[in-house]
Design goal:
Elements: H1 2-9, H2 22-36, H3 41-48, H4 52-59, H5 67-76, H6 81-99, H7 103-111
Helix pairs in contact: 2-6, 3-4, 3-5
Amino acid sequence: MTEIARLHAVPTHRILDPEPLWREVLGQRLRELRRRRGETLTETAERAGISPQYLSEIERGLKDPSSEVLAAVAGALGATLIDVTSQVTGDLRSSYAVTTPQAYGQALLLAA
């Protein structure tokens, strides 16, 4: 029984590579959308009704915006809230698959 308990204590992912936070991936995605449009922070922030400083903090992953602010920024970038959240979710899934490629398989082996 001690052997089994010890097996369960072994981490199934690399501790050195923590998965990214939602706000970090969201910020990267918003910055990418803004730059693709060739806009400055000020231009996008103005249309979204927020300060350029706040938009910068969101893009750098320092602030976690409310759904209202996120919808306003997405709209200012010509996207919808569902577009942006779907893209971020996809980015997170891709990142998770890269950082923990064997975690799912190991969980199945333990269950068997």
